[in-house]
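We give its fold:
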Amino acid sequence: MSYQLALQQLTDSALPTGAFAHSFGFETYIDRALVFDEGSLGIWLSAFVSQSLTYADGLAIRFLYEGGDLGELDSLLSASLLPRQVREASVKMGGRLLEIGGEVFPSPALELYRDLVTTGRAAGHQPLAFAVVARSLGVPLPEALAAYLFATVTSLTQNAVRAIPLGQNAGQRVLRKAHDDVAAAIEHIAHLTPDDLGAVSPGLEISQMRHERQRARMFMS
């Protein structure tokens, strides 16, 4: 299909959005010795996929695909991402994705979002930037969700391989086990309602908040 190569480029780990600089809270779990090997990373990653990626990013992508108001979704994401570092990470990576998308995957919808951000009417969150580009490319929603969720899982696993540290083969085993988590998340996202947006586990959010005051760290979030 015509969108497949574009989707691979959009989700490639080499896309310079700055994802390599963020742990989204798992570094706090490492500091507390709760994530320390392949098994414990898999447990954390499964929780992150079923919570943060399902009730925030993934659900926002679905609502945009279904015709949700872009400015309103952007505001809801800003309000629901309680940890400051996570909110800033979403906006930083979203800004880079909007910039890159404007050069390589331009579309009227993307220009609208960029204009909302430039004029201060939107923050520019990563999942919405991705959804705007993917929908403009004609990517079906299930494929867009699978690509976004697994790209995020891949980035986090690569970062964890460096931070724990783990061997590269261990990282690949973690990714393979995450296939089922991503598939389950996509199925679950299809049945959620607007009231579910932002309903993330407090434990994950607290760890993300604690990261801001962690004594030593490799990542920005």
About this structure: Residues 23-211 form a domain with the Urease accessory protein UreF fold (CATH 1.10.4190.10).
